[in-house]
Amino acid sequence: MDDARATLIEIMKDTRIAMLTHQDRQGRLVSHPMATQDVDFDGTAYFITERDSDKVADLQANPAVNVAYSGKGSWVSLSGTARIVDDVAKLTELWSSFTGAWMDGGPENPNNILIVVEADTAEYWDSPGNSKVTQVANLVKSRVSGERVEGENEVVDL
User: Fold this and answer.
1) Which pick of 27, 31, 87, 112 has the fewest CB atoms within 10 Å?
2) 3-157 maps to CATH 2.30.110.10
3) 67/12 Cα distance (integer angstroms)
């Protein structure tokens, strides 16, 4: 795996909650906070949701999505296609106490399913130093020196 892809996957795994954006059946863009359950090396992201939700119906009608991650001085914008997957074994593998706090019945509940986002492309921004102290120090340094804070920005085809 190349460095850019490794950085992308690391940011996605470190940022627990993402915003899943899709079109609803009226053509409006809608975003939902979703807990990322897993990320494969190719950028495929896994989310758990309820089968009877509006977002599942919307995704079945139009599976084009964007998944945005933001946290600790790093950001990812992932574009791809969502699939609705009914896989109890994978649900069981990914299920956690965090998931159980938001979802009823566990992985055996037939209403609990996976949204699998297969990425086509992603872009990430990673600022130098992910701690608040480092970010503030870089901001102060930039203001004093007049030089722009440089970070890492890459587009990754997946």
Assistant:
1) 27
2) yes
3) 10
